[in-house]
Automatic annotation (TrEMBL):
This is Uncharacterized protein. It comes from Peredibacter starrii.
């Protein structure tokens, strides 16, 4: 009986840990700031190209004007895929050997000075604020 009484409390505690992140649509005019003004090279160089990074997760993403993107997940490897802007959300899609990657990129602030990514991994839904590199 006392376990039943603890269940709602445990549920409230676990729900309270989640931090709500308000995200915004990416305006067409802000998009050019984040897209490299060239086609994706055979061997992208993220130390030179515009990219968005989260070192804690870790993940690096670079968008290119040919609607391709390059990603580097230091724990899982790198690869590439395609991107498109759909109703204010940059949608990234890539095929990997073990899974298909779907990432939504949105503004982390109203002016779209910075971006955030949303995706689901083996731990569930995730939202990461990204840092700008070479932008």
């Amino acid at each position: 009986m006392k376990y039943l009484m603890l269940m709602p409390l445990m549920l409230l505690i676990s729900c309270g840990k989640q931090e709500a992140t308000k995200l915004y649509k990416v305006q067409d005019s802000a998009l050019t700031k984040f897209v490299n003004s060239k086609n994706m090279p055979k061997d992208p160089n993220l130390t030179l190209d515009k990219s968005i990074v989260n070192n804690s997760y870790p993940i690096e993403i670079a968008l290119y004007e040919d609607n391709r993107f390059y990603y580097n997940l230091p724990n899982l490897g790198d690869g590439n895929g395609t991107w498109k802007l759909n109703n204010g959300v940059i949608e990234l899609k890539a095929k990997r050997t073990l899974f298909d990657m779907f990432i939504e990129v949105k503004g982390s602030d109203e002016a779209t000075e910075n971006l955030a990514i949303q995706f689901t991994d083996r731990f569930g839904p995730n939202t990461l604020k990204m840092m700008n590199v070479n932008i």
